[in-house]
Amino acid sequence: MDAARREKKEHGTLSFPFQIYPALDGSEADDSDFIPYHWHPELEIITVDCGRVSLTIADRMYEGARGDVFFAASEELHEIRAAGRENQFRSFVFAADFLQFARADETEFALLEPLAEGRLRFATCLRSGEPGQSEVRTLLAQIVRTWQQQAPGCQLAVKAALLGIVAVCAQYGRLEGRPVRPGADYRARQLREIVGYLGEHFTEPLSLPEVASHFGLSPQYFSTFFRENFGRTFTQHINSLRIEQAARLLRETDLPVMEVGFSVGFDNFSYFIKRFRSVYGVSPSHYRKG
Fold first, then answer.
1. What is the Cα–Cα distance from 164 to 139, expressed in whole angstroms?
2. Long-range own/partner contacts, residues 141-147 (CB < 8 A, 24 or more apart)
3. Which among 146, 156, 144 has a CA at the least distance from the CA of 22?
4. Which of 42, 43, 180, 201 is 20 to 30 A from 8 in CA distance terms?
5. Coil, helix or strand for 159?
6. Does residue 70 contact residue 124 with C-beta atoms inside 8 Å?
7. Which residues of 139-162 are buried (b: 16+ CB within 10 A; e: fewer)?
8. CA nearest to 115, candidates 147, 64, 71
9. Rounded CA gap, 166 and 104, in Å?
10. pLDDT tens, position by position, for the chain (290 residues)?
11. Count of CB atoms within 10 A of residue 203's CB?
12. How far is CA 50 from the centre of its chain?
């Protein structure tokens, strides 16, 4: 259950666990406006490249503007929303342990090993204009250029730039310890289980009391817990998952619009159109044509 919203795709390869999203060839551009709650063992750096992007990382919500940089730690739930082509972001996903050296030195003990083990993490948000932001953005732009060219030595150049980001963040105090709070692991595990369960069953009829009962919680407690940790109601979250899937089906299949709405879990076609329009600003039919 917990793995349901763990990303099942491999980020990069076993020999070089690094990947940039959306793909630099533009093949994923239409599929990147909404990345629902998920988690993965790799670290992720998210840059806001144009407009404004809404993010939820762990239990905090952020509004990112052009130039901002965000960091999601290993196994940390996060979600990204960038409605419309005027709002663009890019993600850099990599395994922390592949930055480590075969021969241990001071940086290995002080920075890289704690980062790989989760005892150290990047501060979540680095706003445009803050110390270190321009240096980090320069290094990320260098990674993009290197990755596009795929010249000999590009993998080493990418790794060197990622190490440079670690160094810059250390220099400006953007690396912080991860103290273990009582109950924090249990809460994080419970959140991942809830996200996983809803990710598996959102196309089915779901009610808050039934889902709360599944997790052994009262409806009142579950409702409050959900809103406090996800920044939206249970119903809003289910609708988001359904609208995301509907948009994908409209792009990738020829299913009739009404069938799309019913297949993702809406039992009222008018309500489906209303909810879709509230997210994308157009009806499902116009979205497909556009």
1. 7
2. 143/20, 143/92, 144/20, 144/24, 144/90, 147/20, 147/24
3. 144
4. 180
5. helix
6. yes
7. bbeebbebbeeeeeebeebbbebb
8. 71
9. 16
10. 344 445 555 677 888 999 999 877 655 544 457 888 888 999 999 999 999 999 999 878 999 999 999 999 998 999 998 877 789 999 999 999 999 988 878 899 999 999 998 899 999 999 999 999 999 999 999 999 999 999 999 999 999 999 999 999 999 999 998 765 555 667 778 888 998 899 899 999 999 999 999 999 999 999 999 988 888 899 999 999 999 899 989 999 999 999 999 999 999 999 999 999 998 889 999 999 87
11. 15
12. 17
User: Which amino acid is located at 144 in the chain?
Assistant: V
CB 132 within 8 A of CB 170: no
**Rounded alpha-carbon distances, angstroms, from residue 135 to 20, 108, 142, 161:** 19, 22, 11, 11
What is the SS3 assignment for 245?
helix
Q: Helices 219-230 and 234-252 meet at what angle, rounded to 10?
A: 60
Q: Which residue has the tokens 């666990």?
A: 17
Phi, psi of 62 (to 5 degrees): -135, 145
Pairing between β-strand 78-81 and β-strand 34-38 as defined by DSSP bridges: antiparallel
Residue with tokens 């076609």: 269
Domains delineated in the chain: 18-177 (2.60.120.280), 202-289 (1.10.10.60)
Q: Is 183 left (phi over 0), alpha (psi -120 to 50) or beta?
A: left
Can you tell me which residue has the tokens 């670290």? 43
Exposure of 112 by Cβ count < 10 A (0-12 exposed, 13-18 middle, 19+ buried)? buried
DSSP state of 109: I
CA distance 38 to 40: 7
